[in-house]
Amino acid sequence: MARFVAHPPPPPPSDQVCGPMVRVSGATRTYRVGTAVFEALSGVDVTAQAGEFVAIVGRSGSGKSTLLNLIAGIDQPTAGRVEVAGTDLGELSENRLAAWRGRTVGVVFQFFQLLPTLTVAENVMLPMELSGGVPAGKRRPLAMELLDRVGISGLADKLPSMMSGGEQQRAAIARALANDPPVLVADEPTGNLDATTGDAVLELLATLAADGTCVLMVTHERDIAERVSRTVTLADGRIVRDTEAVPC
Amino acid sequence: MLNVRSRKVLRDLRLQWGRAVMVVVAMALGVVGTTAISTSYYVAKREQRDAFLGSHPVSATLIVDGLTPQALAAARAVPGVDTAETIIESPGARIRLPDGEWIPVDLSARADYETTTIARPTPRTGAWPPPSGQIVIEASSDGGIRSVKAGDTVEVETPGSATQSLTVAGTASDPSLAPGWVEGAAYGFVTTDTMARLGVTAAPRELRLLVGGNRLDRSQVEAVTAAVTARLTMAGAQVASIDVPDPGAHPHQDIMKGMLGLELLFGGLALALSALLTVTVVSALLSGQVRQIGTLKAVGARTGQIVGGYAAMVVLLGGVACAVGWTLGRLAGLAYADFVATFMNFEVADTGMPVWLIAAQLLTGLAVPVLTMGAVLLRATRITAAQAMHDHGAVRAARPAAGVAAALSARRLPRLPLMGVRNAFRRRGRLILAASALAIAGGIFMAAGNLTTGLEETFVDSEINSEPYDVTARTDRPYPVDRITAAAGTVPGVTRVEGWLTAPATAGAAETISLAGVDTASPVLDLAILDGRSLTPASRNEIVISQGLAGDIPGARVGTELTLQIAGKATTWRIVGVARTVRGGIGWVPRDDLAGALGVPGTANTVRVVTTNHDLSTVKTTQDALDQALASSAVTVVGRSTLFDTRQILEEHKVIFNVLLDLMALLSVIVGGIGLAITLTVSVVERTREIGILRAIGSTTAKLLTLVGVEAAVTGAVSWVLALILAGPATVLFDQLFGNLLLNAPIAFAVNGWMIAAWLAIVTVFCAVASIVPARRAAAMTVSSTLAYE
User: Fold this and answer.
1) Mean pLDDT across B523-533
2) Is the pLDDT of residue B535 over 90?
3) Which long-range contacts (CB under 8 A, 24 or more apart) does B732-741 make?
4) pTM across the whole model
5) Which residues of A lie inside 8 Å of B (Cβ-Cβ)?
6) Which residue of B has its CA nearest to A99?
7) Does the interface ipTM go beyond 0.95?
8) B301 vs A130: CB contact, 8 Å cut-off?
């Protein structure tokens, strides 16, 4: 099993988990396509610590997004086990998984997936409202604080359709941070952005990791190794390469 | 302040206002249906009952010979008799309107209108009671007589007397009468001295009883009537016939019952269609939200939280649907109650409804669509985040070509139409939903058409065909058969003359029936036999009874014997057949046997004639010539009718059902149209990106229209075939349910080819409109915007 140390050294996670923030053990995920069975992931083992900024790379169809979805609890492995922030995701129902995800994992999508009829600030306030972890009166100030952190506080009351791709992705990152999750997963967050904006988003994610968040990112970016603490390469559903892997 | 989820719901509704309006329309349809049906049902039933019972309808009518004042006093003294009144009627009277036309009128006179209790008319306009020498017209009277006003002069003639001029004093309403406009009759009220002036001087024979206590208890009414009969006999009078109508039942009660039954069926169908439509529309509304549901789940929303948000939407839309639907439904219900009131001869005096009914209307109307909508919501929101995030519409549902598409593919059809066929089958769930909604609507549409045709056949054609005599004349008394047939035989253009003898009789305790003594050798008479056989020239003391009579008299069936009181004497008849008729309790017997029972052998009191040509002009000419021929033979005619009159009366009797069935068909058109429009619109919107790809690789607007048009055509064709399959059993069900309520026998099964073809035309138009509009809209988008469509 490949294990990775955090770089820089992780601060204690917000929910006081000891050991790896993410532990994927023997995860297999198969899909049925018509009469055929397609194996997207095949016995993958991976761990990640708080404060790590992990890039997951590979060709299309290599299983990157599937792995990320398993870590985010968006999907469930056909076999194997996924533990995040000390929770075995296989033991949670779909509903409890959603509630857990709201508190523990921030998700950033390639196409942002901001709710089109809510303003940017409302998009950020939504996870707070869903988890109930932030008192109603504090949601707006906290949302503004997060938007300020990603540099778009001036657009708080705009609808997503009125913003550029980069601005929307920043808003999506702010939303992912709404409940101060210890883990942030991002599926090709720069895939739909121009180079300059993509750089800024990567910078932002790196800063988050530096602040102690465990960031896992699927990406097609070249030269990503210089921007992240480690790179995991997948091919045909298996890990074929990792960098800076250090046994615990 | 609203929370973020509530704000999202409101803004989503605003963004998708078109679909939201459709959801409201779908739900409102159910509320409109249930509210309209229950309002008209409740108000019409209550008002009809109150008006009818408020007029103190007669409990029993006795035809009595020798009804002296002493006998009348004896009848009044019988315990249980609340009121006993006599009435004088003048069969065969007719009235000439200001425009010169003569029409038959049922004239009646009472000794003292001020003290009349039984079936007391309510004054409408002008003077009441009728002054001597004047006439008051009953408000529901048929045709042109309703146009006369107080002060007009009309001419009135009774059989064998000179024409008299009477001034119209005013109008009055008698809710206990069957409405004249339906029966093809006019009613007039005069005083006894006016009646004498018109030549009717005979002593009263008709005794009406109003039973005290529980007058709605038939056994009590029959017991009191029997006691009165005995007392009259002791007083030296002879009771010729007894009629005890169903206590509290209007003359058109069976029609009311049938109409209310049809209304309930209609209400149920409206509710079912509303639910189906709601499912279709809500599915469409949610189809654009699948990604957002995935996003919500990804950021931590539990199913309950998402459902809660959409539940708020359901409540909001349901509230609007309630308000709009209930208001429209109540207006429609009251309008229909007014129509029923006109049909049943009463006025709606109070439109109020109890709170419980209003609450039930709203709950029932909304419960079914809201519950079905809830089920759809729950199903949609229970999708996992992964499924939602990966739902790319077309991709997920794409299947290998199968069935029709595969067959067409094998024949190497052009690619674009083939794509249209495949698109129709791609989302099979939605195809089934859309085709089902359209098919059920079409099935109801066709079944309503079939029932309309069946009603026409049963109510009109079957009646006309069973006794297709062009002209009928009724005489004041029996005359020798040879005399009246010989007189009629002299009329030019007559191909067949028959002498019939008609008489009332009493079956069982007090069931009055009409006996028709027929010419058993007639090649014209062709009864619609449901069981057994018709009469033959060899028939002796045999009877064919109507299905209504078979239902009313316990144990009356083919092979049994039926005892009838005819002119006060018991006679026994062997039932050989049951025939269908809408005319209630009728028995057909050999004329000579009936004449023997009446003690007038060899006589007839009705002349029935078949003419060479059957056009209105010939028939009218023959009718006038028959009158003259009979008058020349010293035969007094008191009633006359043509086959055209009979047809019109029968048509009027079923108009109330035709209106309901037309409404049912209209509802089907609306529901089917909305369902298909929504389905195709959503189907096109979902494939906006696919359309963008087609545009990018060179597809023209015409080709896009072909693509969507073929998909619409497939959906329409599937639904039409399903509708055709559904229409058969639905028609049988309608015929059975409705016929048994109305006639105690199923309505004749009939197929209305026009309605089947009409539905095909409607579906074609729906498909064309429902496909062209969204396809043109999609085609109008730029390639870049369609490719960027989420």
Assistant:
1) 92
2) yes
3) B733/B447, B734/B265, B734/B447, B734/B448, B734/B450, B734/B451, B735/B451, B735/B454, B737/B261, B737/B265, B738/B258, B738/B261, B738/B262, B738/B265, B738/B451, B738/B657, B739/B458, B741/B254, B741/B257, B741/B258, B741/B261, B741/B262
4) 0.70
5) 34, 69, 72-75, 94-95, 98-99, 101-103, 107, 109, 111, 113-118, 122, 125-127, 129-131, 136, 175-176, 178-179
6) B300
7) no
8) yes
